[in-house]
Structures are given as structure tokens and as C-alpha cells.
Amino acid sequence: MKLLLSGRALTAGAVAVATLVTGGSAAGAATAPAHATGTPTAAAAAAPDIPIANVKAHLSQLQSIATANGGNRAHGRAGYQASVNYVKAKLDAAGFTTRVQQFTASGRTGYNLIADWPGGDPNQVVMAGSHLDSVTSGPGINDNGSGSSAVLETALAVARSGYQPTKHLRFAWWGAEELGLVGSRYYVNSLGSTERAKVSGYLNFDMIGSPNPGYFVYDDDPTIEKTFKDYYAGLGISTEIETEGDGRSDHAPFKNAGVPVGGLFSGADYRKTSAQAAKWGGTAGQPFDRCYHSSCDTTANINDTALNRNTDAIAYAVWELSQ
Predict the structure, then answer these.
(1) Could you say which of 12, 60, 71, 163 has the lowest number of CB atoms within 10 Å?
(2) What mean pLDDT is predicted for residues 290-299?
């Protein structure tokens, strides 16, 4: 998640390339939690239980990439390029159509990675995305390896299950978010009004494994918001409206272009209140993520329970909203 204020000048210019590959496998899907009524819908029953071990394996790989590349995965650095290559290789092997969108920001080349799952109505596109870059001061495992890894594993679950949704599914990993949402803004602007109108919803996941977590839901689009709230109601977990990251992550360019948006967040440098600690556990008076934008944002900076719940919520929403 980018800093609240950014004084850096940003520019963008681009070239897009596309690669089509084959592969994929099938596996069974598990039943997701019931709605608040206690009765799961057919779409909810189809949503898979995402193995937390798989998500953490991706986080370990991103940590290794950062460690081998100066301790970060920042825009324009070798660690970011290696992160893109890692995610793309997983998607290519699973049968996604991937393309890398190139842009320039702060004098350095950046990349967005876009992955389309074959099939579904091309005039009704459901997107799920996250930023893949870190700040230069750390490896960015919660911010935003957590969202990136969860979206990746959800996409791989689509492939494993052989899911054939009514709507078209697209997944995205954004570059240069930490410089001011550069990659996602470039993507939205590149679509044009006709293509933007085909995106029926964009789901954003930026920091979902905070070590002192909260359970926050974006309150932008009512349908998407209700989908996430219903999921958490099925777990007996109260959520709150997300305000700390309003306008500070990659949903903002989509929202500004009129695309319905939503998402999840587990908190950054705001401090957990006593009421929130009573509701969610954790430590009152401490930040949700004390390592926000710091060198200690490593694999040790993840709350497994929050990561697991939020990842399963992502899968639930992707299945539910793409029917």
C-alpha cells in the first residue's frame, strides 16, 4: 500500500506483449462457509478451500527473491522483475493466457502482469488484483506479498478445479503501486471506455496477513461488499468498513473510472483500538502492522489465521461474483 501522500513525479509510457501457454489440472472443490442465513448458495458450495501452505510457499519464494536482490522487490529493481517472472511461470504452467504490460515511472521500467482464464463472457469480466512491488526499504511480504500470493493461489485453484464460470475471469499483479498506483492507473487508462465498461467488478487485496490483524471490508460497491460480509458472517466474524487505505491502493483508478470495486484489508500503521482487540484478538494500542514499509516486513510478519481467512474469502468472492 502506498504512503498516504506522495510527492514523486510519475510518468508512464508502455508496450504490451502477450504470451499464450497451455497446461492445467483438475481437482475437487470444498464447501465454503454458509451465508448469514446459514444456507450456502450453489456458488458458495463451489468455492474451494485454499491451502494456506500453498500461499505461504509463495511468500517464502518472494522472501527469497528479495533476499537475493538487495532486500527488496521494488519498482525498477531486479527483485521486482524476478517476482513477476515467478508469478508468471506459475500461471503459464496452469493454463492461463498471460501478458506483461510495460510502463515507465520515475525513470525506471515497470511491469503489470495480467492473466486471463480461458472462457466466460468477455463482456462481463471479473477481476481480482494486487500490487506485487515492495518499497525499497524491505521485502514487502505483508505489503503486498500477502495479497499477491493469495490472488495467485486463488487463480491456481481456478485451474486445478477446471472452473468454468459464466463471466470471464482476469487476475492482475500491479507494478509501481508504492510510487502512486502507477501500474494500475496505466492499465485502466489503456483499456479505453468500451473495455472498461466490460469489467463488471474489480476486487483488490493489499495487505491481508497483518500480524495484529483487523478484518476490514471495502464499502465501495454494495454487491461486492455484501459478498465479503456474508462470507465473514458465516465464520461468525464481525467486520468493519475499511477507511485507512481509502484511495491508497489499486482499486482507486478503477473506481475513478466507474468500475465497481471492493476488497479486503487487515490493517497497516493505524493502531488497534480496545474495542477491536476485544472483537478480533490481538494487542490494543499497537499498529495492525508494526513493520509497515520496514525491513522487518518479512515472512515472520504474517498472521497465518488472517491470511488463511482472507484467502478463502477471496476464492469465495471470485466464485460467487463470476456466476
Answers:
(1) 60
(2) 98
- Which amino acid is present at 34? A
Summarised one tens digit per residue, pLDDT across range 83-139 is 999 999 999 999 999 999 999 999 999 999 999 999 999 999 999 999 999 999 999
Which are the contacts of 127, defined by CB distance < 8 A and separation ≥ 6?
A: 169, 170, 171, 172, 199, 201, 202, 203
Omega cis (within 30) before 303: no
Q: What torsion do the CA atoms of 123, 189, 173, 225 make, to the nearest 10 degrees?
A: -60
260 in Cβ contact with 221 (< 8 Å): yes
CA distance 308 to 300: 15
> DSSP labels for 191-203?
HHHHHHHTEEEEE
> pLDDT tens across 73-87, in order?
999 999 999 999 999
**Burial class of 41 by CB neighbour count within 10 A (0 to 12, 13 to 18, 19+):** middle
| Grid coordinates of 153 | 493461489
Dist CA 197 CA 107 (whole Å): 32
Residues catalogued as catalytic: 177
CB 244 within 8 A of CB 216: yes
Locate cell 460497491: which residue? Answer: 221
Q: What pLDDT does 3 receive?
A: 62
Which grid cell is 4?
498516504
The pTM of this model reads: 0.88
Are 162 and 203 a contacting pair, CB within 8 Å? no
DSSP 141: I
